[in-house]
Design brief:
single chain; alpha/beta; Endonuclease, Chain A; 16-stranded mixed sheet; two-stranded parallel ribbon; 17 helices; 21% strand; globular
């Protein structure tokens, strides 16, 4: 009798969760899949839905609105000062207006930026920047490890905190799973404030794999910042025996764009802490005219599918060249269609992928797109000189992006991401030259390669692609 009542309870819970899924899942295909699974297999599907199925981060939405309401007067004053200084660059065409609307932040002029290739240059620049801090340091990473690199970062933050510099550190609790409490306490004893980014209060957060904060950001004194693909771990210096050399890209920014990066950090900090931080909102040009920059924070608390719309729009604007480097390629329908259309228009579309991936399901699923890409003229390449982790895009001789977002559903819809967009021919050429070097020696990925692996591999690819909505 006990098992009968257990089965009835499971079925009732499955039906109830199916009703919730109808309201929460964004696509009809996804809704159908979840409803059928929840009703037919409630013991398996119900826990899976509450771990993988949710698409909206309501708590963050509420916190953001409260924070914005608290800041409205200050934000208006800041905007007026920035407009008077000429650091805000108004939209110049319809493409600009869409990008600004998606970002909820303006384009700024007067910036300088340095492209940082791989871990050695990135962390040397970042640690030297922290040494220059005199007022505050804001640090945010998805992965924070207590290894050699992590200790080097910790030592500098501890020294700065002891010297009276305000230090605020934010890390993702799931991405940094296993971070020793002693590592955090050493910074806290020195006076730093260190918090995890929890998508749920309490221990239940560790079972919520959606809504992870994937951003990597360091800000010093409100005047310089580092953003891009690198986390804090020895593997990002190429010291992982499994993957060997680690190919990644970061960017070091000076100028008014740093203010926009601070906005992204403070929204996350407000959710994690319930409060704010005193920062410098004065935006000063460091070059004239300097680089034109837009900061695009995206995530599951956005009213629209901001990240997917952003990439789709940029792809549609390509006329001659669209080069992309991404470690995870499981695009949604909108992005995939945009890539196909661009290639069929005659755009030189090249996508650089790692030869092997650190996530088997994602690596398998990407092969499901090879045939359609090849048929349309989208050229896929495998990077064979180590593990490729950079998230970079170049559009014609105008746009270049460096950020944290991958071309997969998790980045496009489920994670908090951060992309820095440069609207500058010179920076686009420099980034394009970097990708050209990466493409040298890369091996084409063709449909024939997939077929040659046999029917068992093809079956594994199809099964893996079923999980595309949560990859």
């Amino acid at each position: 009798m006990f098992y009968i009542w257990l089965a009835i309870a499971a079925e009732v819970l499955g039906v109830a969760t199916a009703v919730v899924a109808l309201f929460q899942v964004r696509t009809s295909q996804g809704a159908i899949a979840w409803v059928v699974s929840l009703v037919a297999m409630p013991f398996l599907a119900v826990p899976a839905y509450w771990v993988f199925g949710r698409r909206r981060f309501k708590g963050y939405v509420t916190a953001r609105r409260r924070h914005l309401k608290e800041m409205v007067a200050e934000a208006q004053a800041i905007a007026q000062r920035h407009a008077a200084r000429g650091v805000i660059d108004p939209p110049q065409d319809p493409a600009d207006r869409l990008l600004v609307r998606l970002a909820r932040l303006p384009f700024t002029r007067g910036n300088e930026a340095e492209l940082l290739v791989d871990g050695e240059d990135t962390f040397r620049s970042m640690l030297e920047g922290i040494e220059r801090a005199t007022r505050y340091v804001l640090v945010q990473f998805y992965i924070l490890r207590a290894d050699g690199l992590g200790r080097a970062l910790q030592e500098r933050l501890v020294a700065k905190a002891k010297a009276g510099v305000r230090v605020h550190v934010l890390y993702d609790e799931v991405g940094s799973l296993g971070l020793p409490r002693a590592y955090v306490e050493a910074m806290e004893r020195a006076g730093a404030v260190v918090l995890p980014f929890n998508t749920r209060r309490g221990k239940a957060n560790r079972f919520q794999l959606n809504f992870r904060n994937h951003r990597k950001l360091v800000i010093v004194d409100g005047c310089e910042a580092w953003a891009g693909g690198l986390n804090v771990g020895e593997e990002y210096l190429g010291r992982d025996r499994r993957f060997g050399p680690w190919r990644d890209t970061h960017v070091h920014v000076h100028g008014p764009a740093v203010v926009s990066l601070q906005v992204a950090f403070l929204e996350d900090w407000h959710w994690a802490s319930g409060g704010g931080i005193e920062v410098d909102w004065e935006a000063h040009k460091v070059a004239d005219p300097g680089l034109r920059v837009l900061v695009l924070p995206t995530g599951p608390a956005d009213e629209d599918e901001t990240c997917s719309l952003f990439f789709t729009d940029l792809i549609h604007h390509a006329r001659t060249r669209l080069w992309i480097a991404t470690p995870y390629f499981v695009p949604d329908d909108a992005v995939m269609s945009a890539l196909v259309i661009a290639a069929m228009r005659g755009v030189d579309v090249r996508i650089l992928l790692p030869d092997r991936s650190d996530h088997l399901l994602v690596w398998l699923a990407r092969h499901a797109y090879v045939e359609a890409c090849e048929r349309a003229g989208v050229k896929l390449f495998r990077y064979t000189r180590g593990f490729l982790h950079q998230k970079v895009m170049v559009v014609d001789e105008r746009f270049a992006t460096v950020g944290t977002a991958n071309l997969d559903n998790r980045s496009l819809r489920l994670n908090f991401e951060l992309t820095v967009l440069f609207d500058d021919p010179g920076f686009a050429r420099e980034t394009g030259a970097m990708l050209a070097r990466d493409l040298e020696g890369a091996v084409p990925l063709r449909h024939a390669d997939v077929v040659a692996r046999g029917w068992t591999f093809g079956l594994a690819v199809r099964v893996a692609n079923l999980f595309a909505p949560v990859l």
